[in-house]
Structure formats: C-alpha cells, structure tokens
Amino acid sequence: MEKRWVIKPKADEVVVSSLASELKIDKVLANLLVQRGVTSYDEAKKFFRPGFDELHDPFLMKDMDKAIIRLERAIKNNEKILVYGDYDVDGTTAVSLVYSFLLNLPEIADKGQIEFYIPDRYSEGYGISFQGIDYAQANNFTLIIALDCGIKAIDKVAYANERAVDFIICDHHRPGDTLPDAVAVLDPKRDDCFYPFDELCGCGVGFKLVQAYSQKNNIAFSELEQYLDLTAISIASDLVPIVGENRILCYFGLQQINKTPRKGIKAILELANIKKEVTMNELVFTIGPRINAAGRLETGRNAVDLLISDNLADAAMNGKNINITNTERRSIDVTITQHALSMVEENVELIKRKTTVLFYPEWHKGVVGIVASRMIEKYYRPTIILTESNGKATGSARSVKDFDVYDAIEACSDLLEQFGGHKYAAGLTLKLENLEAFQQKFEEVVSATIQDHMLIPEIEIDEEIELSDITPKFFRVLNQFSPFGPGNMSPVFMSKSLVDKGAVRIVGNNHLKMDIHSNDKETEVFPAIAFGQAKHFDDVLRQKTFCACYAIEENVFNGTVSLQLNVKDMRIE
User: Fold this and answer.
1) Domain span at residue 202?
2) d(Cα 554, Cα 561) in Å, to the nearest integer?
3) Same domain assignment for residues 33 and 91
4) Is the same domain home to 431 and 463?
5) Would the CA dihedral through 414, 429, 130, 96 be positive or negative?
6) Are residues 466 and 442 part of one domain?
7) CA–CA separation, 63 vs 65, rounded Å?
C-alpha cells in the first residue's frame, strides 16, 4: 500500500537556536523538542526528568471528594467492597491495582471484605452487568468500584440502587448525555469535569482514586510506586497519548518493571524470553497481548490472578497458562483475518467502499478487535468486525489516523442497542435485523465526513537529516525522548541520496536488510531493516539511490549493541 509522506513544518528558528544553545545540543534535537512543545530549559528538564510533583491533585477531578468519603465509610464500617473491572488489559490492570491497594490497607481487618469481579465476555458482555450486581447483592457487597467501565451504565446503576448497592465509577470513555446515578462518577471526559488532564486510561483513573485516598489518609506517595508498573502497562496497551500525566506514570512504571518487576510480569518476560531492558514496545507487543488474551478466550480473572500473584510458583503457573492462551488467540485471529480478507476480496462492492463492516456469526468474539486492526493494514479505512452473541450482532471498531470512528458510530445510534469507546476504537451491539441498514448508514456517514487523504496511510516525518547527523551523543539524547507512544512517537527522519553498500538481501517475509550510506558523502555505514520493502530489491541491488524515512534504534545481536535504521518506507530516486 502506498503511503503519504508528511514532513512536519520546521519549528521557529529563533526558539530552536536558543534552546539548542541552552541545552548544548544540536539544532536537529532542539527542533524535535520544540515540535513537542518544549521551548525552554525548565520545560526540557521536566520532559527529560519527569517528577511526581508534576502529577495533578486527584481532588481536582469531579466527584473525587464524594468517592473518597464513600470509600472511607465503607472501610470504617467493614462493608464488603467489590472491585469490578472490564476483561481487557486496561480493566484487569485497574482491578489488580485497586484490589491490591485496598487489600494492603491496615484498616481492612477482614480480608474477605474485598473481592474482585471480572465479567464474562460471552455471558455478560462488556462493562457492568446485571449478573455482576446480582452477585454483589447475593454476597452482601454494598459498594462496587467499577473500573474502565460504567460511564453509560444508567440502567445497571439504577438496578443496583434499588438493591442498596452503591457504585463508584472510574471510567475514561466518553459519557452519554446522561450520567449514571452513582455515588461518584470519576471520568475526566465529563463535560463538567475540569481536571487538567483528560487522557487518562481506566487504570489511570483508578490510580488517581488510590492517590486521593492516600493523600486524605496520610499514606506516603512512595507506597503507591509499586502500582506504577500496572499503570504503565495499561497506558501503553490502551494507546492513550504519552503526554502529561500518562508520560510521568509510564516513565516511572517502566523503571519499576525494569528494577523490581512484580512476580506476574517477571513470569511473562521469562516466558517471552525478554532479556533486554523493557520499553514501551515490550508493553504493547509482549506483555499487553498476553494479559488481554485471558479475557479474549477464557476469563479476565486469570489475568488478575497473574498480576496479583505473590509467590513465584503461582506466577509461573498463571503465566504459563496465559502464554498458552495467547498462542491459541494468535492462531484464531490469523484464521479469522484470512476469512475476513477473502470476504472483501471476493466482493467488488465492498472493495469500492470507504468503510469495512463485516459480519459472520461464528467468528470468535474475543478477537474481533484484533481482526479489525489487521484489516486496516490491508484496507486502510474505518473498520467494524461483528459476530453473533446472544442473538445479536456485536463487535469492535477501529479507525484510521485523524478520523473519529466513535462520532460516526454515534451518528448511527438509532440502529444500535449499545455502543461506547474512543476516537479510534469502539465497541457496539445491534439487532441482527438492523445489520444491513447499519452497514449502509455507517458507509454513508463516513463517506460524508472522511477526507480522501485520510484513506491513505501517513508517515509523519519529524525532520530531514543527513546520516552524518547520527552520532552516539545524538542517539543518547534521542533515547531520552522516551517513553514513546501516541503524542510522543519515536522520531522519524528522512534522508535522501542513500545507497546500499553491496549487502542488500531479502529476509523473512518480504523484508530488506541493507547496509546504507550517503551516496555523495563520506559517511558511516548504517545497518538497516526495511519491513515489507522487498519490491525494491532489484533497484537497490543495482546501486540506485533512494530516499528513506526511518527511526533510529538499538539492535542487540549476540550481545553486541549497535545502531540500526528501521526503514518505514523508501522511494527510488
């Protein structure tokens, strides 16, 4: 698939020069900082050395005072508290965090006072369920703390209120026009919430709850640092922007994982044979998918059991089981993706569309979100993958850069039973008889609102540089821009007039390995990997010059560490 190359505009030259001088770095790096909103020495210090003092007062969040008063009352009166969360990685990390925190409080006299509950993806579906509330009532729980869900559970909370079960909702999804009648609704995306940062994940909101309780009850912040690993995993996996509080929490969460990983995380890393320093990549592509796999195929309780394991034997056993589940999940999602691709390829009308909305009743409900993402890799457009569950069509939506799929789904809400989510990912349920009408209306809504350039994948290039700009010091400073993710992506550079030094070869599945240098200058030779670019093999072999956009990364091979260019795309000149 052809990609659009978009080079970011150069930052203000005066500001860049001043910052480069203050920090004693070159202008390329200073320009990257200014592009990220860092324009002074003090801002750079906070960017490179985040501090806990930059976290916001949790009581700035609407309803936080009510939440803490109710939680304190429950603890003081020995009420039973049910920590309830969604079955995905954000929900299970949030439950693990809040459950562990409460369980460790000295005021909790009876350990049976606190339990956790993860709904079953198949029998209960997403979010708060009537079944979960019935469980709470039957077992004398009078307070439910709902994490990563609940913002639209108006009927469920009303049902709970009738049964004398109170709710504290900790969510980060977009609210509807009406909020549930809970004791407290913590969601920075509420229109009437003026909390300074509204991009927290569900686990992040859970962290702010325990931070507020600690602040009110004179518990040192250092006692909370043991939970930052869970917060970092959730932030990375939920693809929220790595800016503001998220960046601070991730920065320290990664330190926690690398220095003193909890036993469950250590088990995952050992099973995945990860021996190097853990970065955001490992959180997104190694740890997150394994935690998610439990709720996709079996039960999210298994993920919580792993994350709260307090001895190595339990952690190793839970980790092994989840690893097996993840392998099974991969096999299922590959099979379903192939089926979904064939459905589009065999239908001329579907190929022409600006959306992909597919339904097949026997697809596995647990992997439809992954399949939607895989489909976008082939057909770059808003995508919804649906299967049948409990007599209805249910599934997940994924979007392309800059297009708000939640708004598009909301415009079709008259055909839906329920929906919720974010700009780039959402879940929805509808009656089977509304399926065809929904496919048509969603296509009409997207076609009317999406711009043509959004349907071509974009590579955003931070700067054009020479290979000679890449020095050990350059990379050391660049590495400190991490943790990387949405809002602070690993910088992508572009260089022209490159040539391979006779090492080009095809490796793996359609990838190029090269040793490249500038054609018109004496520069160091850099090893490079260009995924999916084997189509250029003949031209590169013939020593044709090319332009490439790439990220700079460390490559560890046989214990040797070297710089490598990860080529995102290339064009023969």
Assistant:
1) 58-222
2) 6
3) no
4) no
5) negative
6) no
7) 5
**Same-domain check for residues 352 and 415:** yes
Q: Is-contact 154 181, C-beta < 8 A?
A: yes
Please check whether residue 145 is in contact with residue 209, taking contact to mean a CB–CB distance below 8 angstroms.
Answer: yes
Structural domain includes residue 393: yes
Please write the tens of the pLDDT for every residue from 327-353: 999 999 999 999 999 999 999 999 999
The pLDDT assigned to 261 comes to: 93
Burial class of residue 120, CB neighbours in 10 A (0-12, 13-18, 19+): middle
pLDDT at 109 over 80: no
* Identity at 145, one-letter amino acid code: I
Specify the number of domains making up the chain: 3
Calculate helix-pair angle for 202-216, 64-76, nearest 10 degrees. 60
- The phi, psi pair for 475, rounded to 5°, reads -70, -35
Exposed/middle/buried for 343, CB within 10 Å: 0-12, 13-18, 19+?
middle
CA distance linking residue 368 with residue 197, whole number of Å: 31
Residue 110's pLDDT is 77
* Same domain for 429 and 520: no
Last residue of a domain, one of 435, 455, 475: 455
Pairwise CA distance, residues 430 & 384, whole Å: 12
